Amino acid sequence: MKAPVLLLTYVKHSTLVEILNAIIKYNPPKLYVSRNLASSQELTLESKRVEEVLNSFKPKFEIEIINNISHLNINDSFHNALNNVFEKEDSIIVLEDDTIPSDAFFAYCNSCLTKYYSNNQVHSIIGYNFGINDSVYSYAFVDAGLPFWGWATWKNRWKKMQHLNSHHNKLAKLTSTEPNILSNKPYLSKAFNRHLHNYITWDIDWSIYGLVNGLKCIIPGVNLISNLGYVKIATTTTNTVSKFNNNQRFRQPYRNVYFTQKSTALEHKYYTKQELFIKEFEQR
User: Fold this and answer.
1) Nearest to 27 by CA among 131, 103, 135
2) What CATH number corresponds to the domain at position 180?
3) Contact in structure between 268 and 127 (CB atoms under 8 Å)
4) Which of 8-12, 86-90, 104-108, 169-173 is predicted with the least confidence, judged by mean pLDDT?
5) For the chain, what is the domain count?
6) Bridge partners (DSSP) listed for residue 31
7) CA atoms within 13 A on the CB side of 202
């Protein structure tokens, strides 16, 4: 069974056609497009170009546009879109206007959405793995996924997080003594604490929720998403020479034997790359 897709857009238009073509190839039962408005007069033209691309998009499947009535910060924009989608859907595959999926990404998400549907310990499926090329047959569970570039989840996981506003307090309590759940990831502790005072991105909150509740994200042994959003007009990914800009993605079609072998080595590689990513993010 195919899951619908949510595409979140803002002012990045140069990559939209490639993403939309990938979605056409996937042919979802429905596409939701969230349109956030420009935050300044300087970005209005970019926003209009996004609108022009979307208006020229005429697929055979159903499209629903989620229009924000005013500009929302990145956190509120994501929450508004996902809350809207989950009024109608039980699961969703999520892309942004700068995340380019491989052909295998959608099949990987659908396979995991089905396989882990009843396993409430898995709260997310992530397609981006920092460009790690471990093995096409491997996967890993991580307890602190980040970033969520090309991912999928279920309604019951997302809605439960919405009703557990105490997870920030729970994080503070769980990390008040040593050793704790972040003792071996001090870089995350710093990022999480900074986030509590400034909602600079949406997915840190989602990562905290999973971590403090003992939930897992699943990641693939090869990278299934390229982020082409490292541009000057970006909200957070402004380092145009970042080592995480446009990481190569897996180009082969999906096969059922892929991502079936659990790999501890992949888990360690992921955290090593994640630390570099967070340090770069903090220096922007």
Assistant:
1) 103
2) 3.90.550.10
3) no
4) 169-173
5) 1
6) 5, 63
7) 18
Residue type (1 letter), 20? L
57, two tokens: 């998009």
Interval 146-190: pLDDT, tens = 999 999 999 999 998 866 566 777 887 878 777 888 888 888 887
- Please state the pTM of the whole predicted model: 0.93
> Two tokens at 175?
């990390």
Structural domain including 141 reads 5-282
